[in-house]
Here is the input.
Amino acid sequence: MTRSLMLITLLTAACGDPEPEHPAYTLDGDVSNGEAVYARTCQSCHAADGTGGDGSDLTETLPGMERDEVIEAVLDGIPGTTMVSYRSILTAQEIADVVSYIHVTWGS
Ligand code: HEC
Here is the structure.
């Protein structure tokens, strides 16, 4: 009885949750796939160890950024810089994965 009530509560909670605006905002992407996406897509500017080059030093900037700012930088790019919007370059899942990867690796 208690178990089935709990299950119903869980199912209701899951169905009642609003869709996140973008899967990246949940930060529960696949970190190891995110590492592969980073190597393919981001490393040329931000370096494998995140310390930058043509791109900024993520080991310096990420700890001082809010999660949402990081996600928005990747989704929308940073106007006037070489950091472009990845919204239409990567899939939603790849963005969630790569943001999760940089967050667990260099984020606060
Ligand atoms: C063509 C070079 C280039 C590529 C490729 C690139 N970036 Fe950037 N990125 C930049 C530059 C330059 C900035 C700094 C912009 C500024 O001056 O604010 C930046 C900024 C950022 C920021 C905001 C924090 C900061 O350090 O300013 C994040 C987060 C970020 N990049 C993540 C990524 C991720 C994730 C990828 C791969 C999906 C990626 N970047 C690919 C050049 C690049």
Summary: Helices lie at 2-16, 31-41, 43-46, 58-61, 67-76, 92-106. The chain has a mean pLDDT of 87. Residues 2-16 form the longest helix (15 residues). The chain has one domain: 20-106.
